[in-house]
Specification:
Length: 162
């Protein structure tokens, strides 16, 4: 995967974890969170052939407790091709993922490569267009009701360790 710097960033962090888990964090001085989400989706699309799953998440890094960002899902790569750790406004999924969803009729689903689907919320601003860091830090953005409705839509596609 290339660095493909689209603009000048204050920070770009790429973390490599066990089992090939990779996360990218871009902190931009010029892009809004919504613009950064679109850029991250473009990055997913450039690398669909190498990815089993991908998603674009808001982060309150660097001010958040990093343990809060972790999920047991990350330690079980056998679930990556069928489950996701939580809902996001933009996700790259497989047909196996989609088969477990309860109702994605309200989501935009585009096949972007063989057995790879970009699944997007109908209004990405509801998921990513936040200018108030405190809303993100306090988990008030995206709206908790929006997240619960999305969790209902995604159903069994969501990872559960119980």
């Amino acid at each position: 995967m290339g660095w493909d710097l689209e603009e000048e960033f204050q920070r770009r962090i790429v973390c490599f974890g066990s089992h090939g888990l990779t996360s990218w964090t871009d902190v931009s001085g010029t892009s809004t969170r919504l613009q950064a989400a679109h850029q991250a989706a473009d990055r997913l699309l450039r690398h669909t052939e190498q990815l089993v799953v991908g998603f674009v998440a808001l982060t309150d890094w660097p001010d958040a407790d990093p343990d809060r960002q972790r999920s047991p899902w990350a330690h079980y790569p056998q679930h990556w091709s069928t489950r996701v750790p939580d809902v996001h406004g933009i996700q790259l999924l497989t047909g196996n993922h989609l088969a477990l969803a309860h109702n994605l009729a309200g989501w935009q689903i585009d096949e972007v490569a063989p057995d790879r689907y970009l699944v997007q919320a109908p209004n990405l601003a509801d998921w990513y267009d936040c200018t108030d860091n405190q809303q993100v830090w306090r988990h008030h953005f995206p709206d908790p009701d929006l997240i619960e409705r999305a969790r209902s839509d995604f159903g069994d596609l969501l990872y559960s360790d119980v």
